[in-house]
Design goal:
The complex is a heterodimer of chains A (182) and B (150).
Chain A: H1 4-13, H2 18-39, H3 41-58, H4 69-87, H5 97-104, H6 115-121, H7 124-133, H8 136-147, H9 152-159, H10 163-181
Helix pairs in contact in A: 1-2, 2-3, 2-4, 2-8, 3-4, 4-9, 5-10, 8-10, 9-10
Chain B: E1 5-10, E2 13-18, H1 19-29, H2 38-85, H3 88-97, H4 99-104, H5 106-115, H6 119-144
Antiparallel strand pairs in B: 1-2
Helix pairs in contact in B: 2-6
Chain lengths: 182, 150
């Protein structure tokens, strides 16, 4: 099914350049927020610029049958961030994948975040500080799920991981948050 | 697994709190926001990149046009020389001067005519003319500065 983004891309490929501009304005805040979470606010501007140039260069390769434009652009953003982190020799996204696989079998059945924890998280600065301390591959699930309103299925497509792994990343991330809040 | 709701006591009342909705709200409050000019800057960067690519393509196709034009001139000159040397024009003119003989010995005539064709020179000339045609077409497309996705 085609949504408005896919229709805009078709229009762009037919020669209407203004619609690409609309896509840039629409996705800049999301890509900026996602990038800033991993590389910091100071470098996020450069990442956003790189992402959109890559999108523009590769727009002909976009296939809406494979993924939505949102998933596609976030995949490009994630790859750009990963390249940046590798260059800076910082932790990469897949570093904890093996650890996560074993964790997936041992998820406890409990309420993850009690109301006291939620009240503490209302402090924006505090939440951002906590997020900075969460391992990269758990944090990305939280950011995509809670800030970008993506479904676990979409996140799985974006990260190239099975649905259960994404769900366990999410659960693990909330568990870590809870531990930090104790 | 993750429990999306939990019971919360507010005075004498017990209410269900939706953890996911609350987290969504909190995360959105904590989102980093770009400077308002960032989208405009990104668009400018794309336009600059596009201009660079268009310029590079113009230069590339123009150079290719010049090279293929000079190559075509040389190869056509050489082709004409070869055609004269192999007697192609002599065989060809025979078709207009003595059509009765041609009609009788058309098989032999066709073979002789084909034999007098310098195939390599002919192929090279056609190839260079084709490259010339394509490069001029592409260069003019870039000059019109239409959609130029790299």
């Amino acid at each position: 099914m085609e949504n408005s983004d896919e229709l805009k891309i078709k229009e762009y490929l037919l020669g209407n350049e203004e619609v690409f501009k609309e896509l840039v304005y629409k996705y800049t805040p999301s890509i900026f927020n996602f990038s800033a979470r991993f590389v910091g606010v100071d470098y996020a501007n450069d990442i956003v610029q790189d992402v959109f140039i890559k999108v523009w260069k590769n727009i002909k390769k976009f296939d809406y049958n494979k993924a939505s434009f949102k998933t596609w652009i976030f995949t490009i953003a994630r790859n750009t961030v990963t390249d940046y982190l590798r260059k800076k020799k910082m932790i990469n996204f897949s570093a904890l994948d093996k650890e996560e696989e074993s964790f997936a079998d041992n998820i406890e059945d409990d309420v993850v975040l009690p109301d006291e924890a939620l009240i503490k998280l209302e402090d924006k600065e505090f939440l951002n500080k906590l997020l900075d301390e969460i391992p990269t591959n758990y944090k990305e699930v939280l950011v995509l799920y809670y800030q970008e309103d993506m479904t676990f299925k979409e996140i799985g497509e974006l990260l190239g991981k099975p649905l259960n792994t994404v769900k366990s990343h999410h659960h693990r991330a909330l568990t870590i948050l809870r531990e930090m809040l104790k | 697994m993750f429990e999306p709701y939990f019971l919360h006591q507010k005075g004498k009342l017990f209410v269900y709190i939706n953890v996911e909705q609350n987290l969504q709200k909190l995360f959105k409050q904590a989102a980093y926001h770009p400077e308002s000019r960032l989208s405009g800057d990104v668009w400018t960067a794309i336009e600059v990149k596009k201009a660079q690519i268009t310029k590079r393509k113009k230069f590339g196709y123009l150079s290719l046009s010049v090279l293929s034009l000079s190559g075509s001139v040389f190869s056509i000159k050489s082709l004409i020389g070869e055609l004269i040397r192999l007697g192609f024009f002599d065989y060809f003119s025979l078709a207009f001067s003595d059509s009765g003989v041609i009609a009788t010995y058309w098989k032999e005539y066709t073979l002789s005519l084909a034999d007098s064709l310098p195939v390599a020179s002919l192929a090279l000339s056609f190839f260079l003319l084709f490259v010339l045609f394509i490069s001029i077409r592409r260069a003019s497309y870039q000059f019109k500065n239409k959609l130029s996705i790299a």
